[in-house]
From TrEMBL, chain A:
Lineage: Archaea, Thermoproteota, Thermoprotei, Sulfolobales, Sulfolobaceae
Superkingdom in the source lineage: Archaea
Cofactor(s) of this protein: [4Fe-4S] cluster
NADH:ubiquinone oxidoreductase-like 20kDa subunit domain location: 93-192
Family of this protein: Belongs to the complex I 20 kDa subunit family.
Residues that span the membrane, as ranges: none
Entry keyword set: 4Fe-4S, Iron, Iron-sulfur, Metal-binding, Ubiquinone
Name of this chain's protein: NADH:ubiquinone oxidoreductase
GO function term, MF aspect, one: metal ion binding
From TrEMBL, chain C:
Entry-linked InterPro entries: ComplexI_49kDa-like (IPR052197), NADH_Q_OxRdtase_suD (IPR001135), NiFe-Hase_large (IPR029014)
Molecular-function annotations in GO: NAD binding; oxidoreductase activity, acting on NAD(P)H; quinone binding
PANTHER family membership: FORMATE HYDROGENLYASE SUBUNIT 5-RELATED (PTHR43485:SF1), HYDROGENASE-4 COMPONENT G (PTHR43485)
Keywords: Oxidoreductase, Ubiquinone
Biological source species: Candidatus Acidianus copahuensis
Domain NADH-quinone oxidoreductase subunit D, chain residue ranges per copy: 191-290
Protein name as annotated: NADH-ubiquinone oxidoreductase
Automatic annotation (TrEMBL), chain D:
Domain of life assignment: Archaea
Keywords annotated in UniProt: Lyase, Membrane, Transmembrane, Transmembrane helix
Coiled-coil intervals: none
PANTHER family the record matches: FORMATE HYDROGENLYASE SUBUNIT 4 (PTHR43359), FORMATE HYDROGENLYASE SUBUNIT 4-RELATED (PTHR43359:SF1)
Subcellular location: Membrane
Membrane topology listed for this record: Multi-pass membrane protein
Gene Ontology terms: cellular component: plasma membrane
Protein's UniProt name: Formate hydrogenlyase
Record flagged with keyword Transmembrane helix: yes
InterPro entries in the record: ComplexI_Subunit1 (IPR052561), NADH_UbQ_OxRdtase_su1/FPO (IPR001694)
Source organism (scientific name): Candidatus Acidianus copahuensis
One Pfam family, short name: NADHdh
Length: 198, 581, 378, 313
């Protein structure tokens, strides 16, 4: 049977509401200081950008179930209906790469928001940085940023890209998507906000 | 009569050039302008052959102008001018002998170029052998015509035998399939300097076609000879353009493109000879002149542009370029790729149109030939576009330059613009096919193809030339100019170290057409048998030489240079005789 | 007995280690030449067609590949030589997609060194982790291959399944990539694994539909052939060698109990690797459905204060091994044999003589993760 | 004359403005078959609108050709939209500027310009794609020309409008030469517009054919090139519909021309549904197999030419 018919029979699987969040990819709540935090994310309250969600602080801190962790410092409303992402892996472990890929899965379907991936920074509106900025990729990162036409955004995906996490240094970004790795709903939510929605 | 003085003047220039070459070149360009005027006069009397003189004049004008800034070699100027002298003699000739003399004088520089390059022994002697063979064929053809009419003057002949002989004679000189394997054109042009290559490639074809057309006009039509020439022409187009596409030599690519164009021209001559009906053969004749003009002008420009390139292999050459030469070469290559509204585009259109009209007119099993010819030529055009994009990309666009030379590139640009504008003027070559409509194209602008009183198709090149820039301007007005910022080429986050090579550009076709090109993938590269018939030809030429040894042991047996000296002396004598007579 | 690869200063065999450099693999040797007409086409490190950052130098004279070099661009420093708890955090994040395999192999090595015997349930739990990880990773590989063929409907169906598997993992282990799940002799586990039946049914239909497509098969067949008796993972199994750490690695006897059977194919090309992965997903699903995992809390005791050990498990792309030397609570020395280091070699030697457009199919079929190659232990 | 000008304007605007919509509809439906809600059908417009407002990056030392040739490319397609029956079934103003073959040569002109401008970016990845595009050029161009001539040889004029009237007659419509030419042209259309099984635009650079031509472009020229490729797909597709597949249903007159825009929309929905089935069921051919695919198209069109002339004997 042809894939056309199979596809039609399967129906549309895109989810209107976000379902089934992995608990350790949501913001943490708790109180007090926790000295054993490997990335010092709990020095002054909970720092989402530094947290690697390692559960060491559990049960002092526990996941709240709120996946909307992204924060945006610059919005570009021009991208409201058309937003092309160029992912660049500057030194990730690979899980951010897969999670980013999964925002295109039928469940989340980024394309319904007009979000797409592209294979050249020239067509891109945003550079999605994943992983720590390793020495080997520093040059490529700079080139990719330079290759993009204005207006453009830099999105730091995951704690490595934001703060360096366990491994090193992060990058300066307009949009921050915390998580280790961030789940697809977190990513989509932050992207939508970067476009001036919500 | 004036024109004869002009020839003597050219002869004098050839002598002057030994000492003062720049002056000779400058005067030669003036001389060429006179020739254009001569051609216009001829054409205004509805003589299609006048077109050859006009085009020849333009070719010599631009190449001699270019030579003023280009010539660095000692013996170049005299041979360059001698070659032009030969062409002039051929173009104004009224007898077979004059024509032949002119033709041989014209080729002297080619012999010279090859004789000097003694490293390539076997191609050189093959070239010689085929050159001689071709001359013999033309000579026999003329002899037969003379026997039929009893006159040495070009006159109507009664059988098509002379035409057959002359056609094959010229086909060899034009490097037509299967003789393209003699590779004489590619080799001759490959080793010649740019300005010499320009006139050799552009006008040698011009003169051969001139001779052929002249004989065709004077001969009775014959459908089978016509169809045969069409078929041969089609294969030349295909193989010429394919070999041009996979060629790595700056001039070799262009030389094979000449083979391709010669094939297309031969196909249109074939169509003219096959004479489907009066209207269509008139259209075909005009197509011949149009195609020759398109090829000669654009090829001149392209060969001149090779004067901006240092080195022989396209991949490793260096280039002088600036906006002028880039735009110029783009225009020239677009004409060579058969794109409207350039001269080459109109020519391609006319050729394909006439071929398919022929198929419709014949309306029999024979239609299969023009259909296949049309299809093969269309494929050839596809390869030609690829070859031309290779040339323009890897000599101008894709390459960074090491400097510029405005004077030379201005000439290249001028030829390019001429080729673009001449596309619209080319409809004057079809005086009885010009019409107009009430749908936006007024009378005088529409070139309609016809095989009877009603139109088959039509184009208005001037309107294309005008409308595309007009719409472009409109789009710029509507959308505005882009805001720009310069940045590095995006190469996946890395600096570009090795650039894509022109060899690699055409390697797909080497791999795809493995059987046709007999590609061998070796451990460290790719080898193709560009010369499928080369070995066979080599054998033929060897046995021909053995045969000719019996007749002319005197010169064929000895060194090539002696043969050359003989040729030069023999034909200088002929020139003097001809001019004096 | 088979050779696996270089593990630090040892050569690792399936039954032992030997000090020194491993003998060269004859099948992976390639002549180093550069063609006269050729040049180096640089692809990557940052490209749309690559999931990770990796530079690929393709020596070519146009479309045809005469040599391949794979250059890891992202090289991370991993501070594993610290207290065990912290080093586990690092090891988890060496390769997110193989996180369970890495962590389990690492922990197994430590356990061996310190003489810890984890309870049976923990071992079963670890197998559940690794099999779920294998399913997800095989699905990712298949999705990448299918996507490269422009086969859009099955590509999205596979993405759908990947997300579904991720959700299953998250529900049972609290994290989609098993971060923070494993510890010495322990396992964090929330709830029983459910909804695998649905995945099984959907998967079967998708998989059959993909390998029914002639055009798709044609793209993979005879692409990137590699027949290496001493190969690892799907690469070896696609060439009919039953090389699998589930038969001879650390958890072999439990796999045996579960009735695990090795999947092989006999072509050794990209299609063979695709089939092996495809059928292994089914085998893993079968194994998982026969396991009933319960949430239990464990406390393990160590017998030694120092020691060294080797943990070897079958990651989705082949044998993965850690050698760990541990003293008290501190890791002294760590060596890693990552399957991708072998797969990169296998890939580069199998890619020669193919053409550029075959590249994505062959590359993806190896399931290489550069993140586990580009690490330096500190 | 006034009415012809109006009809021309309707035809050109009807092609120019609606061309992106058909791509949008196809993408939306493809997405839906892939179990997704998918993007809006207006996504191509959104993309173009955004790109027009973005900056353009000039790769180092590229110049005027890189920047301005896209305008010429789009202008060429606009000119073509005057000359072939893509909305209105009768010749309109400026239609005589080129005949059907001339139209084919104009398509080649646009392709040439696109290639040249892409090469000016001096990117290796672009050169890789261009080398592929060019290696199929001989078959593509030959098929385009021979298929257009199938029209000429069945009617005795090189005029698509005559053909579209000619095939209204069922016996001509079902004639073998017409059927073969239609199939051949459909295959060519799949190739020219980068559809499966020949090509699909994915993220992989090493698989790019036509996508490479816009790889280095950004901002306005990219928007214009995108629009150009939408328009090209529309023009060739409408010829396929009006001259080969579905010559029926078009109205004449000024009012008729406006209705024709709607009729074309319906015809396109049919073409889109055929393409949808292909695009969602097939995978991409191996690179060198594309050659075989095109060779089949060429041979079919040549056979069609044979039948159309020899059929009279």
């Amino acid at each position: 049977m042809s894939w056309f018919l199979k596809g039609i029979r399967k129906g549309i699987k895109t989810e209107k509401e976000v379902k089934e969040i992995a608990p350790w990819a949501t913001s943490l709540i708790g109180n007090g200081k926790f000295d054993d935090c490997p990335t010092k994310a709990l020095d002054n309250g909970w720092n989402s950008g530094k947290c690697i969600f390692c559960r060491k602080c559990y049960p002092n801190y526990s996941p709240s179930g709120d996946y909307r962790m992204g924060s945006v410092t610059r919005r570009v409303p021009l991208f409201k209906r058309s937003f092309y992402l160029y992912p660049i892996d500057t030194g990730s472990c690979g899980s951010c790469n897969v999670e980013l890929k999964l925002i295109s899965s039928p469940q989340y379907d980024m394309t319904r928001f007009g979000i797409f991936f592209t294979n050249t920074p020239r067509h891109a509106d945003a550079l999605v940085v994943m992983g720590v900025l390793t020495d080997g990729m520093e040059d490529a990162f700079r080139r990719a940023f330079d290759a993009m036409p204005n207006p453009k955004l830099v999105i730091a995906l995951g704690s490595c890209a934001i703060s360096g996490g366990l491994f090193g240094k992060g990058v300066k970004a307009d949009v921050i998507i915390p998580g280790c790795p961030p789940s697809p709903p977190t990513i989509i939510d932050a992207i939508l906000r970067a476009r001036g929605e919500k | 009569m004036i024109i004869e003085y002009l020839i003597i003047f050219t002869l004098v220039l050839a002598l002057i050039s030994v000492k003062w070459k720049r002056i000779a070149y400058a005067l030669l360009s003036l001389d060429s302008l006179f020739f254009i005027w001569f051609g216009i006069n001829q054409f205004s009397l509805l003589n299609y052959l006048g077109v050859f003189s006009i085009v020849g004049g333009f070719v010599w004008f631009f190449s001699s102008l270019f030579s003023i800034f280009y010539d660095h070699e000692k013996w170049l100027a005299p041979s360059f001018i001698t070659s032009i002298l030969g062409m002039q003699i051929a173009l104004i000739s009224s007898t077979y002998l004059q024509f032949l003399a002119g033709y041989e004088i014209m080729t002297i520089p080619a012999y010279f170029a090859i004789g000097v390059n003694r490293l390539m022994k076997s191609p050189a002697f093959t070239f010689m052998a085929f050159g001689e063979f071709s001359t013999v064929l033309v000579l026999v053809g003329f002899l037969d015509a003379y026997l039929q009419t009893g006159s040495l003057y070009f006159q109507h002949v009664f059988t098509y035998l002379p035409l057959v002989l002359v056609s094959f004679g010229f086909m060899i000189k034009m490097g037509i399939f299967p003789f393209l394997v003699t590779e004489w054109l590619p080799i001759a042009h490959g080793s010649a300097p740019s300005n010499l290559s320009a006139i050799l490639s552009a006008s040698m074809t011009l003169i051969a076609v001139y001779g052929l057309t002249r004989m065709a006009i004077l001969s009775p039509s014959d459908i089978f000879l016509g169809l045969l020439l069409m078929a041969i022409g089609a294969f030349s187009t295909l193989f010429g353009s394919l070999y041009s596409y996979v060629n790595e030599h700056v001039k070799g690519l262009l030389a094979f493109s000449t083979v391709e164009n010669d094939g297309a021209i031969l196909a249109s001559i074939g169509l003219y000879i096959s004479y489907p009906n009066h209207v269509l053969s008139l259209f075909a004749l005009a197509t011949v002149t149009l195609f020759v003009s398109a090829h000669s002008l654009a090829k001149t420009g392209l060969f001149l542009s090779t004067g901006l390139i240092q080195g022989e292999s396209i991949s490793s050459s260096n280039t002088l370029k600036d906006t002028f030469s880039v735009v110029g070469v783009v225009l020239l290559t677009s004409s060579m790729s058969g794109l409207l509204p350039t001269l080459g585009g109109v020519a391609t259109w006319a050729l394909l149109e006439s071929l398919f009209m022929d198929a419709f007119v014949l309306h029999s099993v024979l239609s299969i030939i023009p259909i296949l010819v049309g299809t093969i030529i269309a494929m050839g055009e596809g390869f030609a576009t690829a070859a031309m994009i290779k040339y323009v990309s890897f000599t101008q666009i894709f390459k960074t330059s090491y400097g510029k030379d405005i004077r030379k590139s201005a000439i290249v640009l001028t030829v390019g613009v001429l080729v673009l504008i001449a596309g619209s003027l080319s409809i004057f070559l079809f005086p009885s096919f010009i019409s107009g409509t009430n749908l936006g194209v007024p009378p005088g602008f529409l070139l309609s193809s016809r095989f009877s009183s009603s139109a088959f198709g039509g184009i208005a090149p001037f309107f294309i030339l005008f409308l595309i820039p007009f719409f472009s301007l409109l789009l710029i007005l509507v959308f505005g100019k882009p805001k720009t910022r310069t940045a590095e080429v995006w190469n996946n986050g890395r600096e570009i170290k090795d650039k894509y090579t022109s060899f690699a550009y055409s390697n797909n076709i080497r791999l795809m057409l493995r059987k046709l090109l007999r590609t061998k993938v070796l451990i460290n590269g790719v080898e193709i048998a560009e010369d499928i018939f080369w070995i066979a030809m080599l054998k033929i030429s060897r046995s021909y030489i053995k045969f000719s040894k019996l007749i002319a042991t005197a010169y064929m047996n000895s060194d090539l240079r002696i043969y050359m000296v003989y040729m030069i002396i023999a034909f200088i004598v002929v020139v003097l005789l001809v001019v004096v007579i | 007995m088979r050779m696996i690869g270089q593990l630090g200063e040892f050569c690792l065999y399936s039954d032992r280690i030997e000090k020194g450099i491993c003998p060269e693999r004859e099948t992976l040797k390639k002549e180093n030449y550069r063609s006269i007409q050729g040049f180096t086409f640089a692809y990557g490190p940052s490209a749309g067609g690559l999931l990770e950052s990796v530079g690929i130098d393709l020596d070519t004279f146009g479309e045809y590949i005469s040599d391949v070099k794979v250059i890891p661009y992202k090289i991370r420093k991993v501070r594993v030589k610290s207290i065990i708890d912290n080093s586990i955090l690092y090891v988890e994040r060496i390769n997110g997609s193989f996180s369970a395999s890495h962590t389990i192999s690492f922990i197994t090595a430590i356990e061996e060194g310190l003489g810890i015997e984890p309870p049976y349930e923990v071992k079963i739990g670890r197998i559940v982790e690794m099999e779920l990880e294998r399913i997800r990773n095989h699905l990712i590989v298949m999705q990448r291959v299918v996507e490269a063929a422009g086969f859009s409907v099955p590509s999205f169906q596979l993405l759908y399944l990947i997300e579904k598997v991720n959700r299953v993992i998250a529900k049972s282990f609290g994290h989609r990539y098993f971060y923070g799940v494993n510890g010495l002799g322990s396992l964090r586990f929330y709830e029983e694994i459910k909804s695998l039946e649905e995945i099984k049914k959907e998967y079967k239909e998708i998989y059959r539909g993909i390998i029914d497509n002639r055009i798709f098969i044609d793209r993979l067949q005879s692409n990137g052939v590699i027949v290496d008796k001493e190969g690892i993972g799907p690469v070896a199994r696609s060439a009919s060698f039953k090389n699998d750490a589930r038969n001879d690695g650390n958890y072999a006897e439990i796999y045996k109990e579960l009735g695990f059977s090795t999947v092989t194919y006999d072509e050794g090309d990209a299609f063979g690797r695709f089939i092996v992965r495809g059928e292994e997903v089914e085998e893993s699903l079968r194994i998982l459905s026969s396991i009933n995992l319960h949430s239990v809390e464990y406390e393990s005791k160590k017998r030694n204060n120092e020691g060294e050990g080797i943990g070897r498990v079958e990651s989705p792309s082949g044998d993965l091994a850690y050698y760990v030397k541990v003293n008290e609570n501190i890791i002294k020395e760590v060596y890693l044999f990552a399957p991708s280091s072998y797969n990169i070699l296998a890939f580069s030697s199998s890619m020669v003589k193919n053409i550029f457009t075959d590249f994505p199919f062959n590359w993806e079929s190896f399931g290489i993760w550069l993140s586990e190659v580009g690490v330096i232990f500190e | 004359m006034i009415s012809q000008i109006v009809e021309a304007i309707v035809q050109v605007l009807g092609s120019f403005l609606l061309a992106p919509l058909y791509v949008g509809i196809l993408d939306k439906l493809k997405g839906m078959v892939s179990s997704r809600k998918a993007q809006s059908v207006f996504q191509p417009y959104y993309d173009i609108f955004k790109l027009l407002r973005k900056e353009t990056i000039l790769p180092n030392s590229s110049g005027l050709i890189f920047l301005y040739t896209p305008y010429f490319v789009l202008a060429t397609y606009i000119l073509i939209s005057f000359v072939i029956p893509v909305v209105y079934p009768e010749p309109v103003f400026f239609t005589p500027v080129v005949d059907f073959l001339g139209g084919a040569l104009l398509f080649s002109l646009a392709a040439f310009l696109k290639t040249i401008e892409a090469m000016e970016s001096k990117s290796n990845l672009v050169a890789l794609g261009v080398s592929r595009v060019m290696s199929f050029n001989f078959l593509g161009e030959a098929t385009l020309i021979t298929v257009f001539f199938a029209v000429a040889l069945s009617t005795g004029t090189n005029n698509p409008y005559v053909e579209s009237h000619f095939v209204l007659n069922p016996s001509n419509y079902l004639a073998l030469d017409h059927v073969l030419a239609s199939v051949s042209f459909f295959m060519l259309w799949l190739f020219e517009t980068g559809k499966l099984p020949v090509e699909s635009s994915g993220l992989n650079e090493l698989g790019m054919i036509d996508d490479s031509l816009t790889y280095e472009y950004s901002g306005k020229p990219l928007a214009i090139l995108k629009w150009g490729s939408y328009l090209k797909a529309y023009l060739l597709g409408s010829v396929l519909l009006n001259v080969f597949f579905l010559p029926w249903g078009l109205f004449t007159g000024v009012l008729g021309s406006i209705i024709d825009v709607g009729v074309m929309f319906l015809k396109w929905l049919l073409l889109i549904s055929i393409v949808l089935i292909l695009e969602t069921s097939l995978a991409k051919f191996r690179l060198f197999k594309v050659q075989d695919f095109l060779a089949v198209a060429l041979v079919l069109s040549v056979i069609s030419l044979f039948f159309s002339v020899v059929g009279y004997v």
